[in-house]
Amino acid sequence: AQKITQTQPGMFVQEKEAVTLDCTYDTSDPSYGLFWYKQPSSGEMIFLIYQGSYDQQNATEGRYSLNFQKARKSANLVISASQLGDSAMYFCAMREGDNTDKLIFGTGTRLQVFP
Amino acid sequence: NAGVTQTPKFRVLKTGQSMTLLCAQDMNHEYMYWYRQDPGMGLRLIHYSVGEGTTAKGEVPDGYNVSRLKKQNFLLGLESAAPSQTSVYFCASRGIWTARSADTQYFGPGTRLTVL
After folding, report:
1. To pair with A105 at 20 to 30 A between CA atoms, which of A18, A52, B33, B46?
2. pLDDT, averaged across chain A
3. How far A45 CA lies from chain B's nearest CA (Å)?
């Protein structure tokens, strides 16, 4: 079974609109961490936002917020007021458990922002 | 502050050749990682290190070796390259846990390797 599932291979959004990128995860461990990374066409991986499994509130970082629904095992990334520079691949990742350094990545969603 | 750097950025090898990829970080991070990224598969962990002089296997370690002789450097070696190792290789590092960043890994720019 896939540990991290990103069902949207590609998404389009108009500039200044909000967009939600989906991520669902599968784990039986009560302690885990969820991450979102952005990969622009230049190739580097840029950390965006983190959510811990015990965090009571949804994480926010500027225009990025994480819609964490624990019971549904989803950790969707919401980008508000999209900008042309947001066009990139977006990866959801999970660190499963406390005693591991392994990050499990989804296959990514390509976001295209148009004017 | 350079963060995480990788050399080289691009490399083409013939089957059977060897090479070493260098990762360097200037953030005094304890933990370092090597990933490979293949189309449609996200990133997969090859090897990692939890401190100077230590290494451990990740998800796809076969065909690779690593060394962490200095805290700031993490080397990935291919002793006998195969076409299946054509990929983009990313190095990452992380520091100690904090409430804000937790165990966030910070990535280098990647190395694009082609094995003919």
Report:
1. A18
2. 92
3. 6
Q: Cβ contacts (< 8 Å) between B50 and chain A: which residues?
A: 101
- At position B32, the amino acid (one-letter code) is M
pLDDT of B1 above 60: no
d(CA B106, CA B20): 21
Query: How close B48 gets to chain A, by Cα (Å)?
Result: 8
**B23 CB-side CA count, 13 A:** 31
Q: Which two tokens stand for residue A51?
A: 């959510």
Local structure of residue A54 (DSSP, 8 states): T
Whose tokens are 């998800």? That residue is B59
